[in-house]
Amino acid sequence: MDIRIGIANTARELSFESSQTPAEVEKAVEKALTAGDPFISLSDDKGKIYIVPTAGLSYIEVGGGESRRVGFVA
């Protein structure tokens, strides 16, 4: 599943693929924001951990992983 995170005052977004379900990501974000946690932690498919300050979150886009096509599509 693809995750995109927009961070305030940053020109680029953080984008990575995760094995977490959309419900797990939503639950983690909701928990961090309601509890007033200073950071949110998410992991990708390769085991990297992304720690993002909750105060700087602009948006989080969670989408289904779509297989990428190779070559020309007719």
UniProtKB/TrEMBL annotation:
Protein name: DUF3107 domain-containing protein
Organism of origin: Protaetiibacter intestinalis
InterPro entries: DUF3107
